Amino acid sequence: MPTPASSRAPRPDSDYGNNAITVTATDTHGKAISESFHLAVNDSGPTATTIADQSANEGQAFSLNVSSHFAAPAAGDALTFSAKLPTGLSIDATPASSRASRPTATTATTRSR
Q: What are residue 32's phi and psi, to 5 degrees?
């Protein structure tokens, strides 16, 4: 007798959480029985790789593309970026195109004191 099986990777975000599943077996006479269970789909959160220390000259623009250092575990998950910066530095986290889901470059400009 074959063993019924079902396999599919959970869809990004739409399956996240606790999902009720019911499986029904029906014989050739139309008699059926069902069993239900819950499938918990977790989200492990984004991952990051180390960004090496950087240096810049005072009063000069500094640009660093950090997008390759971060990844979302589920396809289709968008990441939102922010930064804690010292006074005088700013971050441009605007995607380079409407298709980008994360910034492609971060520019910080130092100010003379």
A: -135, 155
Alpha-carbon torsion, ordered 97, 98, 102, 103, to 10 deg: 30
- How many other β-carbons are positioned within 10 Å of the β-carbon of residue 97? 6
Q: Which residues contact 32 (CB under 8 A, 6 or more apart)?
A: 24, 25, 26
pLDDT in tens, the chain (113 residues): 555 555 555 555 566 788 889 999 999 999 999 999 988 887 778 889 999 999 988 888 888 888 888 888 777 777 888 888 888 777 776 654 333 344 444 444 444 44
d(C-alpha 25, C-alpha 81), whole Å: 48
List of E strands, 10-101: 17-26, 32-41, 47-48, 61-64, 70-71
**pTM confidence score:** 0.48
Q: How many whole angstroms separate alpha carbon 72 and alpha carbon 80? A: 10
| End-to-end Cα distance, the chain | 80
Q: Are 105 and 98 in contact (CB under 8 A)?
A: no
